[in-house]
Amino acid sequence: MLQNTEDSQLEAQADDVIAIIEKAQEKDGYLNTYFQLKFPQLKYRQLYFSHELYCAGHLIEAGIAYDKGTGKSKLLDIAKRFVKHIEDHFGYENGKIQGADGHQEIELALVKLYDYTGDNAYLRLSQFFINVRGEDPEFYQKEIESNLKLGLSTDSSRVDLTYLQAFTQPKYQTKAVGHAVRLLIWLLEWRKL
């Protein structure tokens, strides 16, 4: 709304909420209060349903929109710190998580962040998430088993790889199956890469 019309009251409310979000962000950049408060031991360890990266994606998009609408970069800076945390924990390097969130969104948001900033690191991270999805169809099951073995969780869910569109890499998927929102987001952005 603030990109189309000035509203000082709405902007002030948003600034107040952004200040709270900034206070909630951990020093290392992580930001997901559900895991911060309830299950800190499970950060990035329940990717098949946690929506951590999905929420991060929406935070990125909100930061871009707010910066465009107001010229204020605080929310975008918060999002960039979170992306740095994600970069530190995901990738093909040894010791990093080689999997993707069960619900696509981070991929789209990272492409938008690249478009907005011109920083190729965001495009590379998006490409990683697109390529790693379905590369190891056992990734989520291994994640569950590891959590059980380490005593971090008692969840032993059955993972529906078709729903998650992770039964093989998206570039090899020939039929539109699974959660439609996930596929459409991925298709819209993958063409740009």
Descriptive report:
About 55% of the residues lie in helices and about 0% in strands. It has helices spanning about 10-25, 35, 50-70, 75-90, 105-115, 120-130, 140-150, 160-165, 180-190. Helix 3 (about 50-70) runs antiparallel to helix 4, helix 3 runs parallel beside helix 5 (about 105-115) and helix 5 packs antiparallel against helix 6 (about 120-130). The two termini are about 30 Å apart. The mean pLDDT is about 90.
Which structural traits does this protein have?
single chain; 9 helices
Task: Produce a short descriptive summary.
With 193 residues, the protein is mostly helical. It has nine helices and no strands. The chain has helices at residues 8-24, 33-37, 52-70, 74-89, 106-117, 120-132, 139-149, 161-164, 180-190.
